[in-house]
Structure formats: structure tokens, C-alpha cells
Write a structure and sequence with these properties.
By secondary structure, the protein is an alpha+beta fold. It has helices at about 5-10, 20-35, 50, 55-60, 60-70, 130-135; strands at about 10-15, 45, 75-85, 95, 100-105, 115-120, 120-125, 135-140, 150-155, 175, 185, 190-195, 205-210.
């Protein structure tokens, strides 16, 4: 079964060695340089390439572009986020779906609800057709397993649309271990969570969302990179 088919059926897939050792080391070094000057970690950088455009060639390597095009051909980047779950400052993430998108401006449009102002523009929940179209690729800078915050997912939960937690069977959850340099592909509507780190190893992830849909009525993706 190919990757696209697995995304459609179970809502996720994991791929090892998308990035080479030196490519991952370059990304780790980049984020080490921009950690807070007092030595504390950043935890998250949103509007990633808007804030750090010089990061683009380090992420969109020839190998990653080839990989991305094999899963999401003719899809453009619509959101980039860097997450760092470090030792001593880590947290539990409850079960949820990713049901919002990032846009530049607020424009009252039918079906777009729950507007929230952000530093890059607005967060808003779009109609289901936009959420179902998005493909997320999570680049792992560190070896990630059940001991350092690997995502737990409920297979096929993305196929039910936007749902409440009680509508899915959490006992069917599995842990998605990903190697350093590997990529987890997933549908945003896949129900997912992550536990706290228990062994002291960092979990750094570059979270990228892609779509091939244009937004209606003058709305624009906040971070549109082709």
C-alpha cells in the first residue's frame, strides 16, 4: 500500500531517513542559535518561514522536495511551526484535531468561524472541505518514541470529520515512533495527543502543512510558499 493510500485510510504514515545526518545537524544547529539568549528554550515558533526565511533552503532540500512531491504533488506550504519539547519544561497535549488554519486578514465569509487574532494575522476554523484537503508533514530532528513525546494517534479517526473525543475509541491509540531525520505524514483531522517526556531527551519537530486549495472571498493563507 503506497503512502497516499495509507494517508487516506489510516490518516498517517511514518518515513525514515528523509533527511541525511548532516542535513539534520544543520537544522539542529540553526535552532540552537536562535534559542532564547538566557539559555531557555523557545518551545514554539509560529509563522516559521515568515520569521526565518533563511531556513527555507535547510528544510526544502532536494530530497525533502522529492519526498513531499511524492505525497502531495502541486501542494503549497500554508503553515510552518517549530516545536521544542525540552527536558524540564515539557507538557502533556490532550487529544485533539487540528481544525484551524492561518490567514493574513479577517474577512467574514460563510462557513469560516471562531476567528482569533494572532501575531501573523488570524486563526480561523474553515469549512470541512479545506481541513480534509490539508496534508501535514512533521520533520523530526530527534529520535522520538513513547518516552519523549511521540504523537499518539487513533487510526482512521480523520475520516469522521470534526468530532468530539467521546466519539472515538481512545483504546485503539498507537504511538508513532519516528527516527531523527524521519518524517511523519498525517491528516490534520486525525485525533492525536502526546505525553510528557520521561527520559529527558528533547523532541524537536518542524510541523509543515500543505494544501492545493485557494481560499475564497479575498482570504489568503498566512504563509504561502510554493
Amino acid at each position: 500500500m503506497n503512502a497516499t493510500r495509507l494517508l487516506d485510510t489510516q490518516g498517517f504514515d511514518v518515513f525514515d531517513k528523509v533527511f541525511g545526518v548532516e542535513e539534520i545537524r544543520s537544522l539542529q544547529t540553526y535552532f540552537d542559535r536562535i534559542d532564547a539568549p538566557d539559555g531557555k528554550n523557545l518551545f514554539a515558533i509560529r509563522n516559521l518561514f515568515g520569521n526565518h526565511p533563511d531556513l527555507l533552503p535547510l528544510v526544502f532540500t532536494e530530497g525533502f522536495v522529492r519526498f513531499k512531491n511524492s505525497i502531495a504533488p502541486e501542494y503549497s506550504l500554508i503553515k510552518g511551526v517549530y516545536f521544542d519539547k525540552p527536558e524540564g519544561s515539557n507538557w502533556f497535549v490532550a487529544w485533539h484535531q487540528d481544525i484551524t488554519i492561518s490567514v493574513t486578514d479577517k474577512n467574514t465569509t460563510e462557513g469560516f468561524i471562531n476567528w482569533l487574532p494572532k501575531e501573523y494575522g488570524y486563526s480561523v476554523q474553515p469549512p470541512l472541505e479545506y481541513l480534509e484537503n490539508i496534508i501535514t508533514l512533521r520533520i523530526h530532528l530527534d529520535e522520538t518514541n513513547e518516552n519523549n513525546g511521540a504523537l499518539r494517534v487513533i487510526p482512521n479517526s480523520h475520516a469522521k470529520g470534526v468530532v468530539r473525543l467521546e466519539e472515538v475509541k481512545t483504546e485503539e491509540a498507537i504511538t508513532c515512533n519516528v527516527s531523527s531525520g524521519g518524517v511523519m505524514a498525517m491528516k490534520p483531522l486525525l485525533m492525536h495527543s502526546s505525553r510528557r517526556i520521561t527520559e529527558g531527551n528533547r523532541r524537536r519537530v518542524i510541523h509543515l502543512e500543505f494544501s492545493n486549495k485557494n481560499l475564497p472571498h479575498g482570504l489568503h493563507w498566512a504563509e504561502n510558499v510554493n
